Amino acid sequence: MTDTLYLGDYTYSSWSLRGWLLMVRFGLPFDPVRVDFSEGPVADQLTVIPPARTVPCLVTADGAVIWDSLAIAEELASRHPDAGLWPLDPIARATARSIAAEMHASFGALRSDCPMNLQTGYADVAPSDAVLADVARIETLWAHARTRFGDGGPWLFGAYTAADAFYAPVAARIAGYGLPVSSTAQDYVAAHLADPAFRRWRAMGIAKAEHLARYDRPFRQIGWPGPTPLPARAIETGTPENDLCPYSGKPITHLMNIDGRVFGFCNAFCRDKTVADPLAWPAFAALFDGKGRSTPDRTPSRIPDRS
């Protein structure tokens, strides 16, 4: 048995993104279960794992139920001490935990005024003084960590840690709403948007193509500010270069065209998440580059909806 991670919507659920990154970025195996936000209250959908009522929620193989993101990070660090969730240096580790905890408990104006939406960017946003104060404090935290512990790397503590996972949705908000930050902070935001794991999460949201109007904001919509994926499209007919799905190893049923080449997948979701951002997926990137099938992605080819 492996751990099970209950997750919400890929486009809008910032806390689910954090939980997913904590597993994927540190190579921890898990079985995901998707909770559909359009099917009613999350708490009602989690009655099978009491006392959970929010996502993400991690149910460990030995039966522990962990329904808080910071608790998930700490429990994973305890159970997988060699995974590197927190920095090894005691002072850096204490700082990383403090920075993550402040994110966990603070920045209410940024959260309420600028909900995460990974499918669009907004222009002509006039942030409130409260949002600007939140962003200023975030910049202070980022600058402190990167100056003292960053060691020239792109992340807060040089290598990617749980603290970066906690700030990934914050970076998405800053980018998506065009909030004013320094060039140094912009570099950190850009590192998140270019991170292949972040891009895979976003690609799954594009593949699901769900729209929850309650998260919309009344600003002019523009394109997503992250890296532009390699263009690809779904097709109905063609002869694929591969014999089996690069993710599951199952027979091909759905096709994609990219740069005049045809590739096949075992279901529509496998195809559509790849169409959304082809080179974000290591297994497909290896196939596309002619290196054959790589080690399967830790993200499963289909994340099941909970019924």
Automatic annotation (TrEMBL):
What highest taxon heads this organism's lineage? Bacteria
Enzyme kind, highest EC tier: transferase
From which residue to which does any coiled coil extend? Answer: none
Asked whether the keyword Transferase is assigned, the reply is: yes
Tell me the keywords, alphabetical order.
Transferase
**Ranges where the GST N-terminal domain occurs:** 3-84
Its GO biological process annotations read: glutathione metabolic process; L-phenylalanine catabolic process
Name of the protein: Glutathione S-transferase
- The species is Salipiger profundus
